[in-house]
Amino acid sequence: VQLQASGGGLVQAGGSLRVSCAASARTSSNYYMGWFRQAPGKEREFVASTTWSGAYIYYGDSVKGRFIISRDNAKNTVYLQMNSLKPEDTAVYYCASKAIGRREYDRWGQGTQVTVSS
After folding, report:
1. What is the C-alpha to C-alpha distance for residues 60 and 14, in angstroms, rounded to an integer?
2. Cα gap 4→11, rounded to integer Å
3. How does strand 112-117 pair with strand 17-23?
4. Which helix or strand (DSSP H or E) is residue 24 part of?
5. Mean pLDDT in consecutive groups of 10 residues from the start of the chain, 118 residues
6. Is 7 left (phi over 0), alpha (psi -120 to 50) or beta?
7. How far is CA 94 from CA 36, 104, 118, in A?
8. What is the pairing mode between strands 112-117 and 9-12?
9. How much is the pLDDT for 26?
10. Cβ neighbours of residue 104 under 8 Å, at least 6 residues apart?
């Protein structure tokens, strides 16, 4: 399964943006789809994750209440709706997948750049 992230861009602080992650094929419902981000000079940070069933959804502390992860099972696509964006949200955003119970994400898409101007 390949993952393709898209939808990044430049947005002003306070604005919104939605990024997408399309999977080349549907994985089992027992998989997590996650979003991570990495800013220059910083470690990769967990942003959000969901199972394909939507039964388990998690958010990183820095995005809780502002970002929403969702999925369209028919399109094998996971979305990250980013609201009330801040300059510190600027990063390359990556999508990834892993089987439930697995510690590490083992499939990664290419990143999509999100830049928030002040």
Report:
1. 19
2. 21
3. unpaired
4. none
5. 95 98 83 96 97 93 98 94 98 96 94 97
6. left
7. 5, 14, 23
8. parallel
9. 73
10. 98
Position 25 scores a pLDDT of 80
| Predicted pLDDT at 27 | 67
Q: Answer for the pair 81, 18: CB distance below 8 angstroms, yes or no.
A: yes
CA dihedral 23, 26, 59, 17 (to 10 degrees): 40
Helices (H), the chain: none
Read off φ and ψ for residue 75, nearest 5 degrees. -100, 5
Contact 50, 57 (CB under 8 A): yes
Encoded tokens for 39:
């800013």
What are the angstrom distances between the C-alpha of 95 and each of 32, 33, 115? Answer: 10, 7, 17
Residue type, 16: S
Rg of the chain over Cα atoms, rounded to whole angstroms, equals 13
Q: Which residues contact 56 (CB under 8 A, 6 or more apart)?
A: 32, 49, 50, 100
